[in-house]
Amino acid sequence: MRSDIVIKEVTKEHSNEYAQIPMLGKFSSKYELQKVDGGLGGILFKEVEIEEYIKDIGLDQDPFEWESSFDLSNWGFFIVYHQDKPVAGITLAFDTEGVNMLAKRKDLTVVWDIRVAPEYKGMGIGSQLINAAKAWAKERNCTQLKIETQNNNVAACKFYKSQGAVLGEINEYAYYGDMDDEVMLIWYIELE
Q1: pLDDT for 158-185, tens place per residue?
Q2: Are 27 and 152 in contact (CB under 8 A)?
Q3: Which of 70, 148, 184, 192 is the most exposed place for a label (fewest CB within 10 A)?
Q4: Do residues 22 and 58 touch, judged by C-beta distance below 8 A?
Q5: Three state DSSP letters for the chain
Q6: pLDDT for 60 beyond 70
Q7: Do 105 and 93 form a contact (C-beta atoms < 8 A)?
Q8: Do residues 134 and 126 touch, judged by C-beta distance below 8 A?
Q9: All domains of the chain, ordered by start, with CATH?
Q10: For residue 59, what pLDDT band results from cuts at 50, 70 and 90?
Q11: CA–CA dist 87, 17 (Å, integer)
């Protein structure tokens, strides 16, 4: 990461800065799931090209609304700044009542939100954010990071895999009725 780009742990009071960071994804392929023997023989992922489109992934992730749904006292917030401008961020959920992804575990941190402005992608900022998340989670004696993505976000899947994440859950029906063409993929990073 360049020396004029810095990552800072911040508080929930910085949500206005966090919200300025765009969360746009460019999609040109997706993973199709191919079930072998009805799934009993495993599930194969095949990357297939699709008509390219851009999606604002952050439409349902409004940092201003998180506090109305959850107690954020156990949450972590990091913002990456370039010349005092917020360009990336990560939000972490830990030990919070009502966060279903935590599965009531006290040794798990969920990557609730991660975003990097498009012009700052490919600079290693995402890796720095994941490293910050790992350190933050370890300070709370967590054994795993948990991350949700979808089969149409191939870039995110490849990124999390490059960070040491393993695919732990596949839910074809998680978005049933809303986004029937998307499959939920849950990734785990083991913390030493």
Answers
A1: 999 999 999 999 999 999 887 778 999 9
A2: yes
A3: 192
A4: yes
A5: CCCCEEEEEECHHHHHHHHCCCCEEEEEEEEEEEEHHHHCCCEEEEEEEEEEEEEEHHHHCCHHHHHHHCCHHHCEEEEEEECCEEEEEEEEEECCCCCHHHCCCCCEEEEEEEEECHHHCCCCHHHHHHHHHHHHHHHCCCCEEEEEEECCCHHHHHHHHHCCCEEEEEECCCCCCCCCCCCEEEEEEECC
A6: no
A7: no
A8: no
A9: 5-190 (3.40.630.30)
A10: low
A11: 9
Considering only CA atoms, which of 157, 160, 159, 161 is closest in space to residue 184?
Answer: 157
Please indicate, yes or no, whether the overall pTM of this predicted structure exceeds 0.85.
yes
56 neighbors 80 (Cβ within 8 angstroms): no
Residues in the chain, overall count? 192
CA separation, residue 22 to residues 25, 55, 80, 129, 184 (Å): 9, 11, 13, 16, 22
